[in-house]
Amino acid sequence: MTSLLPLYQITVPTLEFRQLAPVLLLFGAACVGVLVDALMLGRSRRFRSEVQMGLVLGSIVAALVYTVYNWRVSGGGELVAMGALMLDGPTYLMWSLLLFFGLLAVMLFKEEKLGGGANAFASSAAAIPGSVDEAEADRYRLEQTEIFPLTLFSLTGMMVFVAANDLLTLFVALEVFSLPLYLMCGMARRRRLLSQEAALKYFLLGAFSSAFFLFGVALLYGYAGAFDLRAIDAAVSNPVYGRGLLYAGLAMLGMGLLFKIGIVPFANWIPDVYMGAPTPLTGLMAICTKLAAFGATMRVFFVALGGEAWTWQPIFAVLSLLTMVVGSVMALTQHDVKRMLAYSSIAHAGFILTAITGANQNVPGGQPTAVSSAMFYLAAYGLATVGAFAVVTLVRNAAGEENDMAGWSGLAAKNPWVAGAMALFLLSMAGIPLTGGFMGKWMVFSSAWFGGYWWLVVAGVLTSLVAAFIYLRLIVTMFGQAPARTTFVGDASYWTWIPIIVGALGTVVLGVAPDLVLGPATMLGSFLR
Amino acid sequence: MNPENYLILAAILFAIAAVGVLVRRNALIAFMCVELMLNSCNLVLAAFAQMRGNLDGQVAAFFVMVVAAAEVVVGLAIVMMIYRTRRSTSVDDANLLKL
After folding, report:
1. Residue of chain B with shortest Cα separation from A224
2. Tell me, what's the ipTM?
3. Would you kindly state where each structural domain of chain B is located, as residue ranges?
4. Angle of CA points A291, A297, A302, to nearest 5°
5. Per-residue pLDDT tens for A215-253?
6. Helix, strand or coil for residue A305?
7. CA proximity to B30, closest of B41, B44, B19
8. Residue A9 within any structural domain of the chain
9. Per the domain annotation, does A7 fall within a domain?
């Protein structure tokens, strides 16, 4: 027995609580949120959503403060949680952005004034649509307050996802952030059949893609003999086994990651899911899921597979070209505002992928790296997107949200402020100068240019001209046409107005003074290997 | 026995399951095929753990099982919800989202 003992000696794991505080805070608040739902029964049931919202806001703000504090104290660049998470510059940058956009998007979840005292989520997700149960749940003003802890769980997963230093943590985090999203997708209050169908599609395709992801992980493990990203990097530079495992693993892992981003051969789910999901959740998915998926993709491909850059760069170039073109052209043909925004988000993913294709990581002279330019683009896109989806919840008809573009005609005559804000967001997405979107496009294209992909930049600029028509068409509809009779701008509380105002201000600020975000982004732009 | 045979078996299982997801109409069967894909990944992980001489792969297989169990909970909830609404779990019937 004694001879076996050293083999079974288990090192006691240590956790760096200060460094991990942002993640643990969100996770703890989510667990408390589950208890709140279980324990606040009877009379106190009415205050559930207030308590939940307090937990969400408190934990996100505290996590944001902690992230900035930790960055100040340790400056980035340490392995924590037994080497499972890497806290380097990009991690702090992505955590701050994830928390900030999570905070903005979750405010829309609490909007109740707009729907006459009910939020955008089903009163009882288990009740059959159109049944007596559902009518009763509506009458008693029940609320599915589980959405708040689910959102926190999802954000926790995203934060771990962008910081994961080994492939197993990456896989677990992927599932942790996806599973709550699948559930919440099916919980819209209006048009519940569409919403449930979106949940089914998202779930089946998401599970399918994560199986590919996992097979890629297993193959890379076979190639390197370890899950650690740096061990894989070492195995790429000094191969012990044949390259077949590496290429197969790279392709399957890439498929899983690109599915989450929504790059074209794997983006079929995006329009259906964005259209069917409750609009506040669409706002959250459109920015936070994309940001997390881009962050993890860059970490995996730059840190672990950077030695194989000449293999994956041409593939990424072709995929980003395809994504830009298909996303823009398909967006042009849409008549539903949410679906149009979904296709435009695919096109944006293509634009951001050009920066990853360039893959410049340590540019001399303080030039923004691929990471910092992609993150700047995502910040600009996120501000416009959260704002745009907030406006989508505002434009209503008697039945609920008016998503048909015909209903948006002449919106400026009814409420110039809302139409003006929407126009600002759309101009930013189109990349008009003096908005954040223009600076973002400039950054990602220059990043691709420095990486040697000038033809991709030319194609990208031409595509963004086509893409501009998508947004101009809606602006013309809002400002130039006769007002639609059945549409009105809903009476919203500050939970909707804050994201719109912050989005509009942020869009202008990023366009006029981009250095505010670009400075920190450039400083935090290199992965630690 | 040569552990590489397990890899070949896992690849065949993965391929069968992937085709199953694509061709079967019943959401439950498609979902079971996804689970089969995850299990073939487990087989790869265990086989490589044996071949590379460390335990990481075997430990990972446990994590995958836990994740698969969590996925079942969420998946069955969604399929149940669809079935109660439409009395059908065919993915071909879920066709409202088209433009």
Report:
1. B52
2. 0.95
3. 4-86
4. 125
5. 999 999 999 999 999 999 999 998 888 889 999 999 999
6. coil
7. B19
8. no
9. no
User: Residue A3: inside a domain, yes or no?
Assistant: no
CATH topology of domain B4-86: Helix Hairpins (1.10.287)
Tell me the per-residue pLDDT of B22-59, one tens digit each, with 9 for 90 and over. Answer: 999 899 999 999 999 999 999 999 999 999 988 999 99
pLDDT over threshold 60, residue A2? no
Least CA distance to B54: which residue of chain A?
A225
Q: How many domains does chain A have?
A: 1
Residue B82: its chain A contacts at CB < 8 A?
A: 196-197, 200
Contact check, Cβ <8 Å, A203/B38? no
CA torsion through residues A120, A124, A129, A132, sign = negative
User: How close, in Å, is residue A172 to chain B by CA atoms?
Assistant: 7
Give A278-329 pLDDT, tens digit per residue.
Answer: 999 999 999 999 999 999 999 999 999 988 889 999 999 999 999 999 999 9
Measured in angstroms, the CA of B37 and the nearest CA of chain A are apart by 6
Statement: residue A4 has pLDDT above 80: no
The answer to whether position A529 is within a domain reads no
Name every residue whose Cβ is closer than 8 Å to that of residue A243 and which is 6 or more positions away in sequence.
none
A122 contacts A187 by C-beta, under 8 angstroms: yes
Query: Which three-class secondary structure state does DSSP give residue A112?
Result: coil
Query: Is the backbone of residue A77 left (phi > 0), alpha (psi -120 to 50) or beta?
Result: left
Q: Is A339 on the interface with B (CB under 8 A)?
A: yes
Query: d(Cα B96, Cα A365) in Å, to the nearest integer?
Result: 53
pLDDT at residue number A1: 41
Mind listing the pLDDT tens digit for each residue in A57-68?
A: 999 999 999 999
A31-43 burial, b at 16+ Cβ within 10 Å, e below that, comes to ebbeebbeebeee
Residue among A349, A363, A331 at smallest CA distance from A466: A331
